[in-house]
Design goal:
This protein is mainly β. It contains two helices and 13 strands, in the order ββββββββββαβββα. Strand 12 and strand 13 form a beta hairpin. The chain is globular and about 50 Å long.
């Protein structure tokens, strides 16, 4: 499939069902760089799920952006089909609630999936935080974590595992956020990398919408 230094696109990669996704990333990469493959194999911009060999996963699409969209941050819609005819979610316009910024996420029929809230920091040396609201569930609050001495072993192991999933040379520079609903870990996100979902009840569309907003 691969010749020296040359990335060749694999056969058509089947789309996977977005509902059961437990790990995903937003991007065009189908196969990552590795020994013998100096450049990644790329395709359409999509929400992509690692499948197959964990050491060399095929990133299969589970949802698509419109063909003209070059960056997820520029998009307000996600589609279930490659032709972008069937809407999976819409991100509403930015609204204000005091100092907070809100985005309402809706489905194809305008039904509310949830709300993404950006909460400004109380101190200029601290980064903003995020809160996800899903109807019928407790709020999901994101907290930035590190891998320093104060970090718990579970946090260090999880972040280390995410680096492996990302496969990026600069993965260690990305901001990692752990999301909890009360005491339950719901998901873990990394800017420029993989999102891992821990709570099966989380509506994946809410996680996709957050990833589209491209927190840095």
């Amino acid at each position: 499939m691969f010749k020296r230094g040359r990335a060749t696109a694999p056969a058509a990669v089947p789309q996977v069902d977005w509902r059961g996704v437990t790990a995903f990333e937003v991007g065009t990469t189908v196969l990552r760089k590795r020994r013998g493959r100096r450049k990644p194999v790329t395709g359409r911009l999509a929400v992509r799920v690692p499948t197959g060999d964990p050491d060399d996963p095929v990133l299969a699409p589970c949802a698509y952006f419109a063909p003209h969209v070059a960056a997820s941050v520029a998009a307000s819609r996600l589609y279930t089909d490659e032709d972008a005819q069937h809407v999976l979610l819409r991100i509403g316009p930015r609204q204000r609630d005091g100092e907070d910024e809100l985005r309402t996420i809706t489905d194809a029929d305008g039904g509310e999936i949830g709300v993404i809230r950006r909460v400004p920091p109380e101190h200029h040396l601290v980064r903003h935080t995020w809160v996800l609201s899903q109807p019928g569930r407790p709020d999901i609050t994101g907290k930035t974590v590190g891998v320093g001495r104060r970090g718990g072993r579970m946090q260090r192991d999880l972040i280390s595992g995410l680096r492996g999933l990302d496969g990026g040379e600069n993965a260690h520079l990305a901001r990692t956020i752990m999301w909890h609903a009360r005491d339950e870990l719901v998901m873990t996100t990394r800017a420029f990398g993989v999102t891992v979902i821990s709570a099966d009840w989380l509506d994946r569309r809410l996680a996709f919408a957050y990833a589209m907003l491209a927190d840095r």
